Every structure is written in structure tokens, then in C-alpha cells.
Fold these 2 entries.
Entry 1:
Amino acid sequence: MEAGLVPRSVHEEDATRAAPDDLELVRGFLSLHDHEHGEPEGMPPSLESLRWWLGARELLPAEEHVRDQDLAWALRVRDALTAKVRESMGEPRDEEATALLNRAAEETGVRVCFGCAEGDAIHVEAGGVRGAIGQILGTAFLAELDGRWERFRICHDAGCSTVFFDRSKNKSGKWCSMSSCGNRAKVRAFRARQAAE
Ligand SMILES: [Zn+2]
């Protein structure tokens, strides 16, 4: 990867612990975001960020041209997957999001292969951004089937939309990382207690 391809606005330091195995691909996609210079609040990834991220994971050839409509499509799929995360956090099912995911899977030509090795069980017919997202959709689908999906959470910090894999015993994790959002919440709680005393 050329160093020049990394946009400066990209969230470079993701303190969140990686999700197990192939699920990190899904977690990373759902957490990918940009920052306006100096602003803590995350924004959806730009075309350059998406290209850089997919390229770094060898899901997209460096010379691949990405169009605005590819980005818009990828972001719609991402929103629908995020709705699925909310569902595993107890919100009611978003039927529209579910329908969108099924349509997107069809568009990418994603299919599964019985008897294939684990890393080879998902095949995608589409190329480009659609092909790359097809891989992510296939991985997400398998995670929903085997129950791992249920451990995805969205960080409780209001300004943070990072998705994390909840490893806590009773699935009660709240923060994408204890060193960032978790720590900020602790400090806030401490100050609130001090103010009350
Ligand atoms: Zn967070």
C-alpha cells in the first residue's frame, strides 16, 4: 500500500480489541469512520477511506476505481448491518434493513460452500467494492448463524459509534475500549459523585 493513499482524516488508532478471527473484518467495516480535523465526533468514511481500508485488507485491488455510487451502496449496507447490531442489543428487528441485506447479498453473488475449509467457505461473484462487501456479508451471515453475532455491540459513548465484540460473561459490555470511552465514562461518573457530595 502506498503511504500517500492513507487519508489524514482516517481514524488511525483504533484502541478497540479485535473481534475473533474473520469477525474482525465485519467489526472493522462497521467501525470505520473519518474525523474532521480535531473533531472527536466520527463521520461516515469517505470514498478514499473505504478504498484504503478495503485495499489494506486485500479485498480491493489498489488500481480499482471506486465510484460515488459504490460508496453510497456500501454505506447503505453498513447501516443495515449496524441495525442488525442494534437488534442484538435488544432493539426490535428492522425489517427494511434485513431486506436490504438480502438484496445486497444477491447483488454481490455471495454463496457458501459446504465442505470447504473455513477461510474458503464464502465465494463472491461480484468484483470491485461489491465483491469486497460480499465477503463481509458472507462473514456476517455465518456469524449470525453460529451465534457470534449476538456479541456485537455499539459503544455506549454518545460521540463514539465504534462496534466492539463483547467478551463479558453476561454480555453486558458497554464501551469499545476501557482505555478510551470506558475511562472517560469513569471520569465522568467520578466527577458527578464529587459534585453530589
Ligand atoms: Zn467508544
Note: The chain is about 45% helix and 10% strand.
Entry 2:
Amino acid sequence: MKFLFNIKFACVLCGDMTGQKVSLCCHCRSDLPIIEHACATCGIPLSVNNQSLCGECLQLKPTVDYTHSVFYYESPIDHLIGKMKYEGDLSCAAVLGDLLLESVSNIDQIPDVLIPVPLHNKRLVKRGFNQSIEISRAISKQLDVPLKIQCVQRTKPTQAQQSLNLKQRKQNIKGCFEVQKTLNYKHVVLIDDVITTGSTVNELARVLKKSGVEKVSVWSIARAVLK
Ligand SMILES: [Zn+2]
Ligand SMILES: [Zn+2]
């Protein structure tokens, strides 16, 4: 009976039984590509420990105020995110959400709300779920911060950002989001799976600040580093 019970908690990476109510074994967990030090504004990994902002953020202040990305977007995190997004494996979403929760649970500034980065309806219908909402669930519950799904919509379908350069990404995403009404939140945290250039979250932050939000932070599972 115990064996049957544990079957539910096979590691999403190696398939071994974890022996606990988690779907990631401790060996795979200790191998994850964690970001040790990063720019506080955009989350890009930095090698110099005493530097808190990257060169770009020092020169050109982004609209997002703070970014916390837990992992480099590389193996096996890219694999877990891909399994969640393209194979609809929601046990990966639960694992990723727990990892993000653990990483932010010591953050002292608890936001007023969590807003998962919205998908356009067309993509939502095609995928069947919004991965950012799935990742946010455990965080909302454990930190006791409400999850707001309807207050901002992605009104324009966009070309996938992967194939675009920074300038094209900014143009592609401009005017994509619409806020339903004036928002009475001081501090909003946007939740996303992967941050690549930050164009999407900065556009979202711009729209939110126009609607009255004072501070926009971003919590993401991974940060891609463009080579
Ligand atoms: Zn494992
Ligand atoms: Zn930066």
C-alpha cells in the first residue's frame, strides 16, 4: 500500500520514487542551475558579487522595479518548462511553482497581489491553460496573497518572441495589454515562467503603472541569457 501511495510521487526528472509528497528527488534538486547573484532590477545573472545592478539597468532604468529569477534557463529547467508548456504536464508546473515559492519565501516585501503574465485568448485556447497561473497557485496560497487573473488582458495576439531581437520584441509587445480599470494596488508581483529580454514584463509594468500601481516586481522560474 505504501508503495502504491509513493508511485504518485515519482521524480519528474529521473523517475525515481521521491519517498515524499514532492515530485522532485533530492539528487535532481541539488543539480538545478540556480542563479547565485543577479541584477536586482532585471534579474540578469552577474558575476561580480558586490554589484547590484547590471550596466544596462544603470544606464536605462527599466519600468519593472525588481526581478527575481531562480534558475538559468538551461537543462534541466528548460526541459521541465517545455514539458509543462508543450506537453501539458501539470505535475511539472506544481514542481516549478514549489521551487519558486521556496525561493521567494524569505523575501520581505510581500506584494498586494500576484498577476500571472496573461496569454492571449487564442493561445490560451490552444494550450488549454496558462502556465504562469499554474505556477502561481501554490505561491498565492502559501504567502496568502491574492491571485488576480482578470484585471489585465492580453488583447493583441503576438508573434512568438523567440525569433525576434530586442528592438523587434519591444515593438511586437507594445500595446498588447489592457487593464480593466484603475487598480488600487501599491505593489504588484508579475509571475512568469521564463524572462528573456524583459520586454513583455516591462510593457505589462508600463500599463499597470499607468493604471495606478506604484511598484512592479517580477518573480520568474528562469532567466534566459542571450548569447
Ligand atoms: Zn530525480
Ligand atoms: Zn539589469
Note: The longest strand covers residues 187-195.
